[in-house]
């Protein structure tokens, strides 16, 4: 139940930036962010995106939880069938300070939810069975001219429901495609999007 509450909370937080999205005009480019914004929780503190992906048959998303030859261990009834058909992913950045040097600080989260029940070359379904969550979070500071300094923590894959156990010989464990890691990096943003 706790995991479903987490899924719901992240989904709602992913949608909030869309509801409060604001358009910027070319006349707003010279806007001074220190002039009228609140110190804590400014009106534009959320930014993010959400994305839904569908993988067609024979092109399933492989989170590297089951061996590619999982079909050899049970055929269409193979217990390790964690190859995804659907993925719901997103990014949410929160900039809680509106004035001063702290306005450059932000925290972010980036979850990916995987769903499906497929075994390569053996079983192809449109099942929406929950597989699990791959997520990372971090903090960053805007430096200048589009550069940000970021610290990111990526966690192991969290399985959901009945798939949160060992699923036989083909089960590769919870490392997921990247495993657990932490990074320190610099991101450069450039250009403006045309909408």
Describe the SSE topology.
Blueprint: H1 2-19, H2 33-36, E1 46-54, E2 86-94, E3 105-115, E4 130-144, E5 147-154, E6 158-159, E7 181-188
Antiparallel strand pairs: 1-2, 2-3, 3-4, 4-5, 4-6, 5-7
Q: Could you walk me through the main structural features you see in this protein, from its secondary elements to its overall organization?
A:
The chain is mainly beta and 195 residues long. The protein has helices spanning 2-19, 33-36; strands at 46-54, 86-94, 105-115, 130-144, 147-154, 158-159, 181-188. A hairpin with a 2-residue loop joins strand 4 and strand 5 (147-154). The model is unreliable at 12-33 (pLDDT under 50).
Features of the shown structure:
195 residues, mainly beta, seven-stranded antiparallel beta sheet, elongated
DSSP helix fraction: 10-25%
Shape: elongated
Radius of gyration: 20 Å
> What is the count of helical runs?
2
How far is the N terminus from the C terminus?
40 Å
**Order of SSEs, N→C?**
HHEEEEEEE
Average residue pLDDT: 83
Structural class: mainly beta
Percentage of residues in DSSP E strands? 25-35%
Largest sheet: 7 strands, antiparallel
Low-confidence stretches: 12-33
Number of strands: 7
Summarize the structure.
This protein is mainly beta and 195 residues long.
């Amino acid at each position: 139940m706790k995991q479903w509450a987490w899924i719901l909370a992240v989904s709602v937080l992913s949608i909030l930036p869309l509801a409060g999205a604001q358009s910027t005009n070319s006349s707003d480019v010279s806007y001074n962010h220190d002039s009228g914004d609140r110190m804590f929780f400014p009106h534009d503190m959320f930014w993010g995106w959400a994305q839904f992906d569908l993988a067609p048959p024979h092109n399933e998303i492989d989170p590297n939880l089951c061996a590619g030859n999982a079909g050899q261990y049970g055929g269409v009834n193979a217990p390790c069938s964690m190859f995804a058909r659907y993925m719901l992913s997103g990014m949410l950045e929160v900039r809680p300070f509106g004035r001063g040097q702290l306005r450059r600080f932000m925290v972010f989260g980036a979850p990916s939810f995987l769903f499906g029940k497929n075994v390569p070359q053996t079983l192809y379904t449109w099942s929406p069975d929950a597989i699990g969550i791959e997520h990372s979070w971090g903090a960053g500071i805007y430096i200048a001219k589009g550069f940000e300094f970021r610290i990111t923590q990526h966690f192991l894959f969290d399985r959901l429901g009945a798939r949160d156990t060992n699923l036989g010989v083909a089960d590769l464990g919870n490392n997921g495609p990247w495993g657990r890691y932490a990074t320190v990096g610099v991101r450069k943003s450039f250009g403006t999007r045309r909408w």
